[in-house]
Design brief:
alpha/beta, 3-stranded antiparallel β-sheet, binds cytidine-5'-diphosphate
């Protein structure tokens, strides 16, 4: 039995979330952004002033996450995340959240909370989910697994364009984006539970020279071929 899930994993800036959202829309499946749950957890840690080095505060964070009502929806092609009814889509992508999210995500017990929430949300309804460990840990029996990669330079350029679209390309600014991406990748790769790594049966796709529509077309084609096969 396979889960009705397309898992799209890979490092930051490879176009996972845009690809996953578009593929979901083309197939009429739901889109779920697993990173949003870790980002909401990081936001809760900041709001409650928790110390990630203290075991008691890690426990408080898990309790806060279990009590939180987290919902995702795509409206007009844009994905939104709500925390207890408030739209926190912008807040969860601030540099302050991004800076601590990988540390928040290194707690195996917190990961278990996120993973069971994801499995509950999917149930038996088809979904496209993007993340780091969707094909390896959360849905190892996913119908299709794709692992996106791209050069660090290209990923930094994309992130800079997203965050500061009007800024002219400046090598020192680009270098600082590259450095923070590389640091987050390192933390994501090195954690013991749910690290960033491709599943043995994932299809690798290098997106350095692909635009989003080409990425989407490839994944949709793979999904259709699997369904037909
Ligand atoms: O959008 P971006 O690639 O920058 O990151 P994201 O998908 O929003 O994920 C933010 C962070 O959450 C990642 O850097 C990981 O530390 C963590 N994460 C994770 O540990 N496992 C997942 N399945 C998804 C995200």
């Amino acid at each position: 039995m396979t889960s009705p899930v397309i898992a799209i994993d890979g490092p930051a800036g490879t176009g996972k979330s845009t690809t996953a959202r578009e593929v979901a829309s083309r197939l009429g499946w739901r889109y779920i952004d697993s990173g949003a749950f870790y980002r909401v957890a990081a936001l809760l840690a900041l709001r409650h002033g928790l110390d990630l080095a203290a075991a008691a505060d890690r426990g408080r964070l898990r309790d806060a996450l279990e009590e939180a009502d987290i919902r995702q929806e795509v409206v007009g092609g844009v994905s939104h995340v709500r925390l207890d009814g408030d739209d926190v889509s912008v807040e969860v992508r601030t540099p302050a959240v991004t800076a601590i999210v990988s540390r928040v995500a290194d707690d195996p017990d917190l990961r278990a909370i996120v993973n069971s929430g994801l499995r509950r949300q999917v149930g038996d309804r088809p979904a496209v989910i993007d993340g780091r460990d969707i094909g390896t840990v959360v849905f190892p029996d996913a119908f299709l697994k794709v692992f996106l990669v791209a050069s660090l330079e290209e990923r930094a350029r994309r992130r800079m364009e997203e965050a500061e679209p009007l800024r002219a390309e400046d090598p020192s600014v680009l270098a600082s984006y590259a450095q923070s991406l590389a640091e987050r990748d390192r933390q994501d790769r090195e954690r013991e539970v749910g690290p960033l790594r491709p599943a043995g049966d994932a299809v690798h796709l290098d997106t350095s020279d692909l635009d989003i529509s080409a990425q989407v077309a490839r994944v949709v084609r793979m999904a259709r071929e699997r369904r037909a096969g």
